[in-house]
Structure to design on (229 residues):
């Protein structure tokens, strides 16, 4: 079965701390895409990154970095030196079977000043 | 401005009263999709459309209908809403979709629906 698990329901950190959001996925497909989206308190969904199943290179974008490991079926997201503006719900998602999309339940991150 | 719009943004209705949530995109995207977001469940796909007159069920299609008569519009229809359809609904679009021609999905602002 296709599944995305975000085991951390809520995380709270103090500003400037590093924080890692975990994402574990299950799929039988050999070709698939993985995503992270951010949902700030205003409610919209903001695309952060996509990664295809053949590209295991880690990616860094400013304070954000992503670690994709096929061996453990994980696609974890790290925010370095967190800021209050990073407070949001973060969703990991799996695009599989060419057309289908499955989201995790989300992790609510609160960054306190 | 390139965007996906949804109307209404908020709706309170009663059980059994048919309603339509509109979704429109101005980016000439082929692919459109509807999701519902519920606490602890993330987003679940209701229906999607690869192009005009082509629609397919997602994970949770029961109780919903869609149509794609024009490229820009993809309305979500609840023929007889029930309280378990109380949720936050998102429409999304993409230039194309599928492994060979993948593009990012753009999401609308969401419609919060309450069915009493």
């Amino acid at each position: 079965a296709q599944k995305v698990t975000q085991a951390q329901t809520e995380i709270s950190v103090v500003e400037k701390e590093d924080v890692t959001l975990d994402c574990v996925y299950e799929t039988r497909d050999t070709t698939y895409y993985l995503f992270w989206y951010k949902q700030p308190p205003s409610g919209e969904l903001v695309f952060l990154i996509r990664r295809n199943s053949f590209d295991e290179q880690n990616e860094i974008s400013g304070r954000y970095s992503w670690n994709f490991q096929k061996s453990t079926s994980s696609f974890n997201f790290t925010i370095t030196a967190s800021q209050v503006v990073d407070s949001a719900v973060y969703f990991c998602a799996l695009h599989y079977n060419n057309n289908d999309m499955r989201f995790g339940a989300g992790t609510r991150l609160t960054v306190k000043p | 401005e390139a965007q996906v719009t949804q109307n209404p943004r908020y709706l309170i209705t009663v059980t059994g009263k048919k309603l339509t949530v509109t979704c429109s995109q101005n980016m000439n995207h082929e692919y459109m999709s509807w999701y519902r977001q519920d606490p602890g469940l993330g987003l679940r796909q209701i229906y999607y459309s690869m192009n005009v007159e082509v629609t397919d069920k997602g994970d949770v299609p029961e109780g919903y209908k869609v149509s794609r008569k024009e490229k820009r519009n993809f309305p979500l229809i609840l023929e007889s809403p029930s309280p378990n359809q109380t949720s936050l609904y998102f429409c999304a679009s993409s230039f194309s979709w599928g492994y060979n021609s993948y593009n990012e999905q753009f999401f609308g602002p969401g419609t919060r629906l309450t069915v009493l």
User: Anything to note?
Assistant: The mean pLDDT of chain B is 93. DSSP finds no helices and eleven strands in chain B.
